[in-house]
Design goal:
binds nicotinamide-adenine-dinucleotide, 2-enoyl-CoA Hydratase, Chain A, domain 1, N-(1-d-carboxylethyl)-l-norvaline Dehydrogenase, domain 2, alpha/beta, 17 strands, Rossmann fold, 46% helix, 3 domains, 6-stranded mixed sheet, 655 residues, 26 helices
Length: 655
């Protein structure tokens, strides 16, 4: 051999070591052609006396980063992935997978099929299948607990979270890690192994540190509780727990059956729809071919909760930041907040100490707007007050380059009205980040009436470059997400006036799969921003007999949520409790409306909340605020905790 074998597989010999390169970019998915290419290469290498070992490596940015999910909706073609993995394990020469970028799902299964695995230090390895409502289906649940301690295998497979190379080395997945020159390193490693006896393949080893029956039961119960009805992590755990009692063949068959059940499930369909919807956001046909403006230096106005989070996110993604505040003291506070986020990234091993120092020196702050005169783009995150924001934009217009993009992070306000304070309003957009901005992946990109296509493209690309999901929204009160949230929050208010209690509503939402209920969420975010919005709307609000002023009364008492010690719940005792003040405000509201409280089941509560959500979502779509139903589902799943495995309110409505 020594010639390319197909357009996605290349095989060359370096001395006695064969090097098989998968070139199915961008992600080197294990498509049918890749699988059959590997099987051919195994057979050829076995038959070639000149080859003593084989290195399996990926071309471009990554190793094999998973199965080809586009093939999921077709009938599978042989060789199946599990056959490739089994064939690797019975190869007569040592196979070494050389991992850079990511070895995920089917990619990691292929790597586990090899006799050895080596990697670049910044590579990641994992089984993310549960995120698509699936589980490993080509031996992962059987092989991983024979390679690492069972508790580690459980952690990796049921959370879907990848591990970095050093961690994988410590756990026992990798034999060696290198800082650079992966191919040379792997070839050298392979030449050393060429003369040694083959190690026992994972399929013939025992499970490492299997759990006791009691521990297994405990873990299963805890995961069932945590999953709120999401099936895939639980089924994956059941499969892993079954493996020590079965032979490998039987265990792989059981895994296959469970994988097929999950693949056919409504939850997996929902998660796969969301997966594609998330990749499709921001791809507006009218923007095709339009190049974004160059963005290197970003200004941030206001370094409170949002401004500091946005600044840290931008720094972590390679942008230089200049942050403007109102006073030296406020600037210091903002700097501290940014440092805290960066230190946290350092603590979690996401950035090194030298990177931390480089990022802190890419951060500047000032009280003088002239400092942002050379920024390419600015994101305003000052108080949620139209007049304050208009004044900020007037000053930005004066001090910034005429071609710079000016963005507002407003949650609800009319960005068209803000754009009027800029001479060339075509350069104004909204970039609505969610809190905490360095963690939440959603960014609503607000399309004003006058925005230039290139400016809109720049906003979308900026969000993607921050590893966020940009969803384009038209201008309305609250855009896509907060407008829909206001509608179901209003419905939750009606429910409590009619007889439910806030903690009953929250519990119903948690049972449905939201991480927290709507009243808990308000307490966490602070009740004051929405209060300001309601006060603003009060002059124009249609006479609405259902409007419940309970949250207004809480705000009048200074109960803004967790940050003030109480809101819907009282946090003073450490455990959130409904106190007398809230109960009597609710009772007053019922009396004033002559309402006799009724009781509601969790199902009834959730049906009302979901109807309100879907009704408003439909209006948002009909008015053209959202581009498509899928965008709405992406917003609700990524900004508001809608359970991903239910696909989103529109997905549910359309089933
Ligand atoms: P915040 O009160 O924490 O911070 C606002 C900061 O802006 C303060 O530090 C203040 O000193 C500074 N500031 C005020 N006027 C200024 C000016 N003229 N120039 C420079 N700095 C100025 O508020 P926040 O929660 O960060 O919210 C900021 C914006 O982000 C608001 O529009 C809000 O609606 C929006 N937002 C908030 C959230 C959230 O959950 N907090 C989420 C999304 C969007």
């Amino acid at each position: 051999m020594g010639v390319g074998m197909s357009d996605v597989i290349d095989f060359v010999c370096q001395g006695q070591v064969g090097v098989l390169t998968i070139d199915n970019q961008p992600v080197n998915a294990a498509s049918h052609r890749v699988r059959s290419g590997i099987v051919n290469a195994i057979r050829n290498a076995d038959a070639d006396a000149g080859i003593k070992a084989v290195v399996l490596i990926g071309a471009g940015k990554t190793f094999i980063s998973g199965a080809d999910i586009r093939e999921f909706n077709q009938s599978p073609k042989q060789p199946y992935l599990r056959e490739v993995v089994l064939e690797l394990m019975s190869a007569s020469k040592p196979w070494i997978s050389a991992i850079h970028g990511a070895a995920l799902g089917g990619g990691l299964e292929i790597a586990l099929g090899c006799h050895y695995r080596v990697a670049l230090s910044d590579a990641s390895l994992g089984f993310p299948e549960v995120n698509l409502g699936l589980m490993p289906g080509a031996g992962g649940t059987v092989l991983l607990p024979r390679c690492v301690a069972m508790k580690d295998a459980i952690q990796m497979i049921t959370t879907g979270k990848p591990v970095m190379a050093r961690d994988a080395l410590a756990k026992g997945i990798l034999s060696a890690v290198t800082e650079d020159s992966l191919a040379e390193f792997a070839i050298e490693f392979a030449s050393q192994k060429a003369g040694e006896p083959l190690p026992v393949p994972l399929s013939r080893r025992s499970v490492i540190e299997p759990l006791t029956r009691d521990e297994a039961d405990r873990q299963l119960a805890a995961l069932r509780h945590k999953s709120h009805g999401q099936q895939s992590p639980v089924v994956a755990l059941e499969t892993i727990l079954a493996t020590p009692g079965l032979g490998t063949e039987e265990a792989i068959k059981l895994e296959r059956d469970h994988f097929e059940q999950l693949k056919a499930s409504e939850q997996s369909r929902a998660l796969r729809c969301l997966f594609f919807a998330e990749r499709n956001t921001g791809k507006l046909s009218e923007l095709s071919g339009i190049q974004p403006l160059k963005v290197e230096k970003i200004g941030v106005i206001g370094g409170g909760t949002m401004g500091s989070g946005i600044a840290a996110t931008c720094l972590l993604n390679g942008y230089a930041i200049i942050l403007i505040e109102t006073s030296e003291a406020a600037t210091q506070l903002a700097r501290q907040r940014v440092w805290e986020i960066l230190s946290d990234s350092k603590k979690r091993g996401l950035i090194s100490s030298s990177k931390f120092h480089a990022l802190t020196s890419a951060f500047q702050s000032s009280v003088d707007y002239q400092a942002i005169s050379d920024a390419d783009l600015v994101i305003e995150a000052v108080y949620e007050d139209l007049k304050v924001k208009q004044e900020v934009f007037r000053r930005l217009d004066e001090s910034m380059r005429p071609d710079a993009v000016l963005a507002s992070n407003t949650s609800y306000l009319d960005v068209n009205e803000i754009a009027k304070y800029v001479v060339d309003s075509s350069r104004v957009i909204g970039l609505h980040f969610f809190s905490p901005a360095h963690i939440m992946r959603l960014v609503e990109v607000i399309k004003t009436e006058t925005v230039a296509p290139q400016v809109l493209t720049t906003g979308i690309r900026l969000a993607r470059s921050l590893s966020k999901i940009p969803v384009v929204s038209g201008v309305c009160d609250g855009f896509i997400g907060n407008r829909i949230m206001s509608a179901y929050r209003r419905e939750a208010d009606y429910l409590i006036v009619e007889g439910a209690s806030p903690d009953q509503v929250d519990a119903a939402m948690r049972d449905f799969g939201f991480p927290i209920g709507i009243f808990q969420m308000q307490d966490l975010a602070g009740l004051d921003i929405a209060w300001a919005m309601r006060k603003r709307q009060s002059k124009t609000r249609a006479p609405d007999i259902g409007y419940a002023g309970i949250a207004d009364r809480l705000c009048e008492l200074g109960r803004f949520g967790r940050k003030t010690g109480s809101g819907w719940y009282n946090y003073e005792g450490g455990i959130p409790e409904l106190d007398e003040t809230v109960n009597s405000i609710i009772a007053d509201e019922r009396d004033a409306r002559l309402i006799v409280p009724q009781s509601f089941s969790a199902d009834e509560i959730m049906k009302r909340i979901l109807n309100a959500m879907q009704g408003e979502a439909r209006r948002v779509l009909d008015e053209g605020i959202a581009r498509c139903a899928e965008d709405i589902d992406v917003v609700m799943a990524n900004g508001y905790g809608f359970p991903r495995w239910k696909g989103g309110p529109m997905f549910m409505q359309n089933r």
